[in-house]
Amino acid sequence: MADGTSAAARKFDADRAGEYAQQSRIALAGYEACHELAACMLAAVLGSGTPARLLIVGAGGGGPEIVTAAALEPGWRFTAVDPSSAMMDLTIARLEQDGLHDRTEIVLGTVDALPQDAVYDAATLIGVLHHLPGDAEKRAILQAIAARLKPGAPLVLAGNHYAYASQPLLLAAWGERWRQHGASADAIEARRGKILQGGRSAPFRGGRRGPAGCRRLRASEPLLFQPVLGRVARAAPCRKRRRRLSPD
Q1: Domain count for the chain
Q2: Residue 52 falls within a domain, yes or no?
């Protein structure tokens, strides 16, 4: 997992971190709702008002998983893991601003850096898995998380469902969303080229059982709790028919 994770961390340098707050909310429609629903799902599983230790993997970029969950459940404590120092700096600053630093352990590195005997009541992996290049890397991070969860503990997963290049219409709509927020044609094209480069489009795989490797983690059937909010279809050509009108 180290090579794939290191490569992913290098993409989130100081420049990328500096624009992350804006970029994530424009490029990922439903970003805020995803984190809010994740906190609600975890509270529903663990029990409202129950103290718990949560493992937040990929916590850099401001730690919205922690900020949102901490507001809902004052008794929760967190371990924030991210290999990018630039992204983790954003999270540390936000946690200090919100008075959450004392409730959070900061780990600059990967899940493998955690002690083997560390045990958590729940975990999140949001916006991370599709940045890892192959099934082996995806499987490794999932197994590392699973090894540190209590039996029956929930894991919230969120990330890309499609490879970017495999869905030209969705990619075009992604560009229109940037245009909607004032980006120029040149800026949109530059962003499009950036997300398509270096295999950064690796999606979830594995059908209903979720990402590749989930079957091997002895996990229960995944529950989709934030489905796509809109779908589009093109009408098939058909012959015109005379429609019989019924009397009023």
Answers
A1: 1
A2: yes
What is the pTM (predicted TM-score) of this model? 0.79
Whole-angstrom distance, CA of residue 219 vs CA of residue 214: 7
CA geometry: angle 195, 4, 13, nearest 5 deg? 55
Least confident segment among 48-57, 171-180, 183-192, 198-207: 198-207
Kindly report the CATH number assigned to the domain that includes residue 211.
Answer: 3.40.50.150
Indicate whether 185 belongs to any domain: no
CA nearest to 69, candidates 134, 142, 126: 126
pLDDT band at residue 109 using 50, 70 and 90 as cut-offs: very high
- What range does the domain containing 86 cover? 2-160+202-217
